[in-house]
Amino acid sequence: MVGLATSTGPDGAAVLAVSGDLDIAGVAAFLEHAQPLLQSDAAVIEVDLRDVTFLDSSGIGALVRLRKATADGQRLRLSHVPASVARVLELTGLTDLFADRSDW
After folding, report:
1. Hey, which of 14, 15, 78, 94 would disulfide with 42, CB 3.0 to 4.6 Å?
2. pTM beyond 0.85, yes or no
């Protein structure tokens, strides 16, 4: 089960904090929570993954969709990426797609 919360970071980033399993069961909710952030004036959308315990191919696909959906002038930043999630992104060759990242 995925947990989701939105907030504003100290640098003005629109933050989507994700917890639990980002898998096929939680992808729709993840993308639904992300939609208002994409439509906001925020220059940076930050996805905080510190509490993600599992990421499957559906979750990877959702991150890619979110990255591709960012508007001109918006950046997607991944933060607090657990080693297990970073490893999955490395194995799938997606680390360059998420070049704007912190705390890996």
Report:
1. 14
2. yes
